[in-house]
Sequence to fold (144 residues):
Amino acid sequence: MKKTIVAATVALSAAGFLGVWLYEPGPLGSETVAVAAPAPPSSTESSSSSSDGGASEGAERTIDGSVESNRYGTVQVRLVISAEDRISEVQLLRRPTSGRGVDAIPVLQAETLTAQSADIDTVSGATSTSESYVKSLQAALDAR
Fold:
């Protein structure tokens, strides 16, 4: 009888400790954060008239990436594509609200704008969030 009580006490104590140890408070609410792209290199005006899948010339368009979940939260990317077919802004429709992924998102957004592709490095300590971000980003790029 004593062994059962001791085993139950140890198990419940370990479970309680683990829950407290893994808890990471974060900001309340969910917000969309946008990062503007660096200015593109100056070039001369193009006078070609092409059709971008029904988009009018000189118009920006938005493309939503897939919803990607991991154990730390859900990520969904929205890209703003300029008339020159460059990523001009990266928005997050869904983002982690706690943990290291919160700090990783601005780094990933900046790298996306620099690389203009999904070929970016993961952020150390936020690998799961980085991988979800890249999957959503790639889905948006494939849809353009």
Remarks:
- Residues 26-32, 41-55 have pLDDT under 50 and may be disordered.
- DSSP finds three helices and five strands in the chain.
- The helical segments are 2-22, 100-115, 127-143.
- The two ends are 66 Å apart (CA to CA).
